[in-house]
Design goal:
Elements: H1 8-22, H2 28-33, E1 39-46, E2 50-51, H3 55-65, E3 70-73, E4 80-81, E5 86-93, H4 94-125, E6 131-133, H5 143-152, E7 166-168, H6 170-176, H7 179-193, E8 199-203, H8 206-214, E9 220-224, E10 228-229, E11 235-236, H9 238-247, E12 252-256, H10 264-268, E13 274-276, H11 279-282, E14 289-295, E15 298-299
Parallel strand pairs: 6-13, 7-8, 8-9, 9-12, 12-13
Antiparallel strand pairs: 1-5, 1-14, 2-4, 3-5, 10-11, 14-15
Helix pairs in contact: 1-3, 3-4, 4-5, 8-9
Length: about 300
């Protein structure tokens, strides 16, 4: 199922642009080496453990190239997959299978990498009740796919862009003149134009948290870089824990900064409601998936990620 912010038309438009970028006037290697009537079978294999994501997009790549490609998925988006498992089997004309191979793998590998990283982080935060959130640190043009992958991995989406949630950061406060003035202007805008819109504000110190609360608060208070590395390399979360206690139930709390798979559990244990991580999307490691071909009884080379 597609997320609410992504339609089939959106997905097909993205695929059309990606095919135009990659294929343009034609896949000259395939056209010059493979007969038009040749049939093929291909298997998509996982070469490491992870979470599958992007199968729907990959399938629509081949559908855009031919009406005669059949795909049997052995796993669905969001499923855990194991190294060595065949996750999809394709049958159809060899030419569209070869032409769509790299683009389909690009969808699968990037999205599966994001989903896998999210699942691992969410699993460690879950016992403490903290949600894992994404950020706007996504690949230009691929934001909706990146955020979809986070959802498939068990995370939650933060704002989609600059248009659907107020997030007051330090530069906004500087430009507005003060925390109080920035909040006042934001709340007036929301009350007049978008009563359901969330107002969030970034804080970096306990003094800034107190200033936000004194100014009437916000729906969400972002506690940025309050989990800090000590000289011995350990993570000091004492300021973050104190900020969470100071806020109490007056706002939802979100932690950011120094969030890794190794630190997320200790951050979650402070009682924070949510933890956002830009690394899920801006530093994604693609999941190792490959696609092997069998054409007229002969096995072709396997293209790896």
């Amino acid at each position: 199922m597609l997320p609410p912010y992504l339609s089939h038309d959106d997905l097909d438009d993205l695929i059309e642009r990606a095919l135009a970028e990659d294929v343009a006037d034609g896949d000259v290697t395939t056209l010059t080496t493979v007969e038009s009537g040749r049939a093929a079978r291909a298997e998509i294999q996982a070469n490491e453990d992870g979470v599958l994501a992007g199968a729907r997009g990959a399938g629509r790549v081949f559908a855009a190239l031919s009406d005669h490609v059949e795909i049997a998925w052995k796993a669905e988006d969001g499923n855990a997959i194991s190294a060595g498992a065949v996750v999809g089997v394709l049958n159809g004309p060899a030419r569209p299978l070869l032409t769509g191979e790299r683009l389909a793998l690009n969808f699968l590998q990037r999205m599966s990498g994001i989903a896998t990283a999210t699942r691992r982080m969410a699993k460690r935060a879950k016992p403490h009740g903290a949600k894992i959130l994404d950020t706007r640190k996504t690949a230009p043009g691929l934001r909706l796919l990146d955020k979809w992958a986070v959802r498939l991995g068990g995370g939650a989406n933060h704002r989609l862009g600059l248009f659907d949630q107020v997030l007051i950061k330090d530069n906004h406060i500087a430009a507005a003149g003060s925390v109080g003035e920035a909040l006042r202007q934001a709340k007036r805008y929301v009350e007049d134009r978008a009563p359901e819109m969330i107002v969030e504000i970034e804080t970096r110190t306990l003094e800034e948290v107190r200033a936000v609360l004194d100014a009437g608060g916000a729906d969400v208070i972002l506690l940025d870089n309050m989990a800090r590395r000590s000289s011995d390399g350990s993570l000091d979360v004492s300021m973050l824990r104190e900020a969470v206690q100071l806020i109490g139930d007056r706002a939802t709390t979100e932690a950011s900064g120094n969030v890794t798979l190794e630190t997320v559990e200790v951050i979650a244990a402070t009682g924070v409601d949510a933890i956002s991580s830009g690394a899920l999307t801006h530093s994604v490691t693609a999941l190792d998936l490959s696609m092997g071909f069998q054409v007229s009884g002969g096995v072709g080379e396997r293209e790896n990620g």
